[in-house]
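Predicting holo structure, nicotinamide-adenine-dinucleotide bound.
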Amino acid sequence: MLIHLRVKLQENPTQTYCQFIRHVLPSLIMSTYLITGVAGFIGSHLVNRLVTMGHEVVGLDNFSSGFRENLISHPLFRFIEGDIRDLETCQAVCKGVDFILHQAALGSVPRSIEEPLLYHHNNVTGTLNLLLAARDAGVKRFVLASSSSVYGDTPILPKIETMPLQPKSPYAISKLACEHYGKLFNDIYELPTIGLRYFNVFGPRQNPDSQYAAVIPKFLKAFLSNESPTIFGDGEQTRDFTFIDNVIDANLKACVAPLSSCGASYNIGCGDRISLNQLVIEIQTLTGSTAKPIYADTRLGDVRDSLASIQLATECLNLAPQISLRDGLNQTSHWYRS
Ligand SMILES: NC(=O)c1ccc[n+]([C@@H]2O[C@H](COP(=O)([O-])OP(=O)(O)OC[C@H]3O[C@@H](n4cnc5c(N)ncnc54)[C@H](O)[C@@H]3O)[C@@H](O)[C@H]2O)c1
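Done. Tokens:
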């Protein structure tokens, strides 16, 4: 970025100065970040990146689905065990914080259908507590993890942010409610917020063992042990799988995006899709496994196809996915092997 700016400086000094102020300066100044859900898959990757960049990080988690082993020991990292459903906890952790990367949530669609009230309290009330605490603490930017599930099962692809939303599960509704609260706090309380609609994130450290685990860790674990994974449906459903590094980049870019980009939600995906049957072939090739998948009935709440339009995120967050599905699968399978 700095070399690119030096070349540009000769061509257009004013524009280059603005780019420097907006994109480079914030990353050079040490800031304090709060990561909720820090013991989870995405939160634990965020903390690694931020301390490497020299930022101070406060992490919050209640270990409802996260793991102590995901927490690092680092002089720039401080962990607080607590729950976002408790307003006082949220107020305590927001003190002195510049940026919030809010990842804490219960994440499974099928489980949300079994326990809708739990999902509402955990995901919606918890987020509202955190927004209130962030507003009162004068936080500079609040980035919240949303989900592609807010689009529901509409046949139109790719999913564009301006489309009507049709959430199909309590989990998807909880994410949409958080997006709305985020926008409201941006518009009426001047807390700059950005929602990130993640499309099927995968990478090292994602838990393959829960009954509600995501498909890539489940498939990798099964094929690495030459066992048969289960596919719900005929396997022709498609997904836009997004490697974890791209999601970390999106969170950091959202913190320095211009104020005009706030109060909105953006698709965070690769802009490409693959069917589960094709994914099986990719993973079989990667692992050398000869196991075959078992097919079971489609699950309630699952969407058929998913593909992100990433145009808005490119324009407003200056974002482009850096790691392809194949490279990401390679890195992830190395991690599961070791
Ligand atoms: N992984 C994906 O593919 C994906 C896709 C779309 C959206 N998301 C969203 O991204 C975020 C992070 O997902 P992840 O995959 O890292 O999930 P994860 O389950 O690994 O991490 C979530 C973390 O939040 C913590 N948590 C949950 N409720 C909490 C509470 N009330 N108080 C404090 N901590 C709490 C959990 O213990 C866990 O450590 C979630 O908001 C999820 O809905 C993830």
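The CA atoms of residues 193 and 284 lie 41 Å apart.
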